[in-house]
């Protein structure tokens, strides 16, 4: 497996995780009156996006 293949797999996995987090955030709805759950999911998504951006910048 080449480095490009590894990066493609990583990108796909990261996108799937972001989609799962978005679905979880949508399902929280009114069950999260304090907004803590949404903030936690947003934080996780932010970490993933930051790592994705860093990873893409290193291999271009």
Provide key terms for this protein.
mainly alpha, 2 helices, elongated
Structure explained in plain terms:
The chain is mainly α. The chain has two helices and no strands. The protein has helices at residues 3-28, 36-58. Helix 1 (3-28) packs antiparallel against helix 2. It starts with a helix and ends with a helix.
Instruction: Compute the separation of the termini in Å.
Output: 18 Å
Major sheet details: none
Contiguous helical run count = 2
Radius of gyration: 14 Å
Q: How many β strands by DSSP?
A: 0
Low-confidence stretches: none
| Strand content bin | under 5%
The residue fraction in helices comes out at over 70%
Oligomer: single chain
What is the average per-residue confidence, as pLDDT, rounded to a whole number? Answer: 89
Structural class: mainly alpha
Element order: H for helix, E for strand = HH
């Amino acid at each position: 497996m080449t480095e490009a293949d590894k990066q493609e797999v990583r990108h796909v996995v990261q996108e799937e995780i972001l989609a799962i987090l978005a679905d979880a955030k949508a399902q929280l709805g009114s069950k999260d009156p304090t907004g803590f759950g949404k903030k936690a999911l947003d934080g996780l998504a932010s970490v993933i996006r930051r790592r994705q951006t860093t990873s893409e910048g290193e291999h271009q």
